[in-house]
Request: fold
Amino acid sequence: MATKKFAGPSPYTFTPTYPKVDYFYTEYLENVTTKQKGRACAVPVVGAIFGLGRAGSIHLTSIMNNHRIILKYIVDDRSDMFENIRKYWKLSKDVIFLTSKESEKVYKDKSVNVVFIGSPTYTHHDIVISSIANDKDVFCEKPIAESIEDTKKCYEAAKSKGRKLFAAFNRRFDPDYRSLKDKVRQGTVGHVQILKVTARDSPLPSIDYLRTSGGVFHDCLVHDFDMSCWVLGELPIRVQATASALIPEVKAINDFDTIAFLLTFPSGAIAIGDNSRYSAYGYDQRLEVFGNNGMLKVENERPCSSLESYLGYEGVKVNPIFYSFPSRFKAAYKNELEHFLDVVQYGDPMEVTSWQTLAVSKIATAAEESARTGKGVEIDWSKEK
Reply:
């Protein structure tokens, strides 16, 4: 009876609330109310997807599980996979499989209003330009094109036709990273002094993939540069990078597998990063922000993270971190697709703008130059539109 006086009023007298970081509960509420962000459901888009490789297969999974999309075409040059894909996803005969030589059928089909690109980097520019020329909005894996000039042409084409061109920087849509960014922008850590990003890949990509990836700076480090600029809300004025090729097969194709970089920003903030093509213990992705008020950090995620083992005298054991990007960023891939559909169907502002994509490409180019020359590179943004 000694604590009964602390009981307070009945919980039924309170208006129920829940923490917004519980994004699964938010999704549940949308399913219950059959409204997405409080809006009535729009007419589904009709789409085509190019490429079913590393990224394309992830996007196909998201598309097949999204009621806002009707998939009409799948384009890939591995035609031997077509029947297995149809059986696995239980696709009707309405879904048409094509090879890249038959792509014109997609472009000329006026019922298709969105195109998803997950094919190799060297194919992006032509698919983007052809899709936009035929009045289709485009969701494209980064990079949009192999060069900054070609990327600009893609965005200029989209602007002239009034179409949407979305560069899929999926990590912006990861709930953990987004929460950190929001807190930084709210001033939680005060004036940011140091941002640290670690990105170590798993598993080791094949050499065939690396040959057509565009190089580690434009394939991997663009994510680190994008995270740094996105969280801080500014662009660096100086880039320094050092890189090594410790894996013989990577060195043979004139690329790098071990990289460190330093970005200096106008506010005085410094971003420090390390990146590796191969992590033997899993997909290591961490982000930390330090300011005059304190620190925020995102640690690695683990499958079955609430399970711990206490066996004998070995101490406490937890599960290893996620093995690779499809599992670590599963929510991010789903969220970025929802955002793209919000842009197309409801006219929401696009969160990955053309200038941000071009800026990240410019930073990656400067960082590679620094790594290859051994010199720091100053970046002048004054002439950029």
Notes: The radius of gyration is 23 Å. The mean pLDDT is 95. The chain has 14 helices and 15 strands.
